[in-house]
Amino acid sequence: MAEFGLSVQDVDTELPSPARIYDYWLGGSHNFAADRVVGERAAAAMPTLRAAIMANRAFLHRMVAHLVAQCRITQFLDLGSGIPTVGNVHEIAQRIDPEARVVYVDIDQVAVAHGRQLLADNPRAVAILADLRRPETVLRHPQVRTTLDLDRPVAVLMNAVLHFIPDSEGPDAIVAAYAAALAPGSYLALSHAAPDLDHPTEQAGMIDNYQQSTGVQFIHRTPEQLAAWLVGLDIQPPGIVLVNQWRPDSEEAPAPILRTYGLLARKPVTSLGAGPATEA
Fold first, then answer.
1. Does the reported pTM lie above 0.90?
2. Domain containing residue 157
C-alpha cells in the first residue's frame, strides 16, 4: 500500500477499527481478526444489527441514485467513507451519469489506501486521508479542489459517521461548517444511530463493549437532535425517518431494524444566492 503514498505498516492490527468492523459486517475482506471478534460479539448481542447495517447501505445506494437521477447532482463529497466495498458511491453515481465526480474522505489509513487502489483507473473519483472534523482542511485539500467545483452544487454525505463524534467535539458545528461552505442548491445527506426503545439493555451492552474494544465513542441521538443541526437547510421529503423507510424500493412494510435514521437536506437557493440550483 505504500505505493499510494500511505504507509500502513504501523497500523495496529490488534486494535479493532470502526471502518474495518463495518467492512466485516458488510461482508468485505479488508479486516483483521480483532475486527471480526468485535463485529461478531456485537451482532450476537444485538440480533437486528446486521439488518440495520445492510439497510443503511441500501439507504446510501438509494440516496445517491436519487441525487443523481432526480436532483441532477453530479458531485459528491463522501465523509467518513470507510473501506471500499461493493456498491460504492462512485459506482452508483457513474452508472447513472458517467461524468459524476466523487471525493472519498477518511481518517483510516487502511481505508484510504484501499480506496486509492480501487480508484487508480478512475479519473473522476479520488480518496484522501483527512479528518472530517476539520471542515476547512477538507474543503481546502488540493484533491478536493481539483476534483470538485465547490462553486456549484455538491452533495455532502455523512453516512453512519456522526455518531462517532461526541457532543464535546461539536458535531452541530461541523455540519454547519460544511453547509455554510457549499453553494446554494447543494445537499447534505446523513444517517445516524438512535436509541433503540425495543432493545435498550441489549443496545447498551453492545455499545459498551464496542467502545471498550475500539477506544472510539459511539453516541446515539434522536431525530429531534439531528433536526437541530440543520437550521437553515430544507429537510426533503419524507423527512427524518428510519433508513429503510427513506424512499424504499418496495411498498412492502419494512422489517424491524436497529434504530438508524436518515435524511436529505438542501441548502436553499435565494434570489441573491450565487450559483445555480442544480448541476448543468
1. no
2. 2-266
